[in-house]
Amino acid sequence: MADDNRGTVQYSCCGLGWGVPGDIAAESEKFRWMGTKRYAFLKVKRLLFPKRHSGRLQYEEDNIYDGIASVRNAHLKAASKLAGAAIGVLNSAPDGAFCHPSDGCLDLIVARKGNIFQMLNLAVLYLLGKERKSSLLSYVKVKAVVITQNEADGVMNMDGEVLPGPGPWRMEVVPSLFKVLSEK
Hints:
By secondary structure, the chain is α+β, with helices and mostly antiparallel strands. Helix content is about 20%, strand content about 30%.
């Protein structure tokens, strides 16, 4: 992952999150005394007191093994203006049933805010393991992602570490950088 403004490059093995995941990572240090329950507490807090996140999302679909040597100069597809609750870019996660560390892709998950009925429907679908059927959730396998946020105080969660904004942040798959054993 690279921060385009500062030219900093950092490496992630598990996942990246912007929006609600970034907020939770940033606030979690204040509640360290709660142990792992702090994450559930902060999720409920964000549900009751949401913070708006807006920006622009660009991505390059497919995987790194389809003939392109590098995606650094590839043309990225631009999504329309983003006003979502959360963006996750995962390589592996307990609830990422379709995430495979060796498939050459980042799994881009975009969750949007909806009305109360849409949010309740998403919650029920999540409990049933069918959240991908919700119109509020987009799931795309990508080679590279660039997130440009509109707020100056936003943060990125990278494997539990908080990276300060304002970004933009660029994430891409680097083949054969890490050797990770996985059950998937």
